[in-house]
Amino acid sequence: MAKEENKLEKIVSLVKRRGFIFQGSEIYGGLAGIYDYGPLGTELRHNIKQYFWDKFIAEREDVYGMSAAILMPKRVWEASGHTELFTDPLVECKICHERVRADQPEAIAGHENTHKKEKGKMAWSESKVFNLLVETKLGASEKSATEAYLRGEITQGVHVNFKNILDSMHPKLPFGIGQIGKAFRNEITPRDFLFRQREFEQMELQYYIKPDEKTGKEQFEYWKNFALDWYYGLGFKKENLRLRQHAENERAHYAKDAWDIEYYTPFAGWKEACGIHHRGDWDLKRHSEYSGEDLSYYDDETKERFIPWDIECSGGVDRAVLFVLSEAFTEDEMNGEARIYLRLLPKIAPVKVAVFPLLKNKPDLVFKAKEVYGVLKKKIPQMMFDDNGNIGKRYRRQDEIGTPWCVTIDFQTLEDSTITVRDRDSGKQERKNIDGLDKYFEEMLR
User: Fold this and answer.
1) Which of 194, 287, 359, 371 gives 318 a disulfide partner, CB atoms 3.0 to 4.6 angstroms apart?
2) Is 272 exposed, middle or buried, given 0-12, 13-18 or 19+ CB atoms closer than 10 A?
């Protein structure tokens, strides 16, 4: 597949212009790898997270939801291996002293391109190990302050609550615990917009099973395919997703086996969207050892006590947003004019239906349009009313934000209570009765 280098620039321009995503603290110069979500980006992100919650948690009888704290004591990260092993190789430019990842040739090349005049003299330090955890201290006194970290992954919040879930919910194996939440990594070289950030959000499932090789293989295969199907449900073409197994020297310290669901980005090739990891008993065993708490499971039927194995599905919310935008970003021509639109699935589009009066200076049309908007809003919360500019410009705005349908109230509406419904992808319009319009869109959204 051919790369389209400028597509990312087009996406970044569109999402800022239309209120999806902004550079964090932009008026103060911004922070690298930090982004703020505007009104439409927040809705898109919410819809993706809700879809994850529904499929991985709410619709299942064997999975419990939770929300763990962001701040966790240092001992947690010693037990998980992060203080020792959560590292990247770092090199420092001897000219300007900027640091980049030693294992990212593109970062090194990009830095050298910004110093073309000095390129002949370019020199790098020897590679060093750099820990990605973000450290802080809690408490008013320097002497008594507690060392803590902003969590580098949301996973550990589930494992340290394993006993609490057992004692409060009394689940039977196999069972899962799912959550969505923020994580923080002091990335050396944040890059590719939302792909590699310092503050980001994860959606994860930890699924606990009996420690048995046959069961482990079956569950691992099941969750690989379940997660892949979930990503297809976001509207990705089959050729743009793939499963790739990690080589032995590529696996994380906790992994018995590991696969990635990768998405083909037009601007950077294949990139990880989600990891499916067989974590074995690494986490629960380590937290039992470091905390002194018994995190074993007692099987009432077999009268056995053991540390369960864990199968993990871990995906980035922000990466899902980026990849969805990349997949949906479309350039075509309509009625002899070039246009850009987001071909988003209706279930994740930030606005489902936009309602327009044909003319904003005609009170009867505006009144009727607001009446129709009010009726639809009760059934479809993600709506927009727009009377700014001519009707063509309004259609183009809604196309750019991915709104599947536009409803226009015109003079015929005042005569026979019909409106026009315009389809985003084809531009086709058809007349519908106002009566039953809410049911029509509810059915379309299914």
Assistant:
1) 194
2) middle
pLDDT one-digit tens code per residue, 299-319: 999 999 999 999 999 999 999
Residue 293 near residue 309 (C-beta atoms within 8 A) = no
Domains and CATH numbers, the chain: 7-86+132-326 (3.30.930.10), 88-131 (no CATH), 351-445 (3.40.50.800)
Measure the CA–CA gap between 318 and 295, rounded to whole angstroms.
32
User: Cα Rg for the chain, rounded, in angstroms?
Assistant: 25
Global pTM value: 0.91
What stretches of 191-282 adopt beta strand conformation (E)?
199-209, 241-245, 257-265, 269-280
Task: Taking each helix axis as running N to C, give the angle between helix 7-17 and helix 317-328, from 0 to 180 degrees, rounded to the nearest 10.
Answer: 100
85-127 pLDDT tens trace: 777 787 878 777 777 777 777 777 777 777 765 555 668 888 7
Contact predicate 286/81, CB 8 Å: yes
Task: Using alpha carbons only, give the angle 284, 201, 247 rounded to the nearest 5 degrees.
Answer: 60
Distance CA 134, CA 186 (A): 6
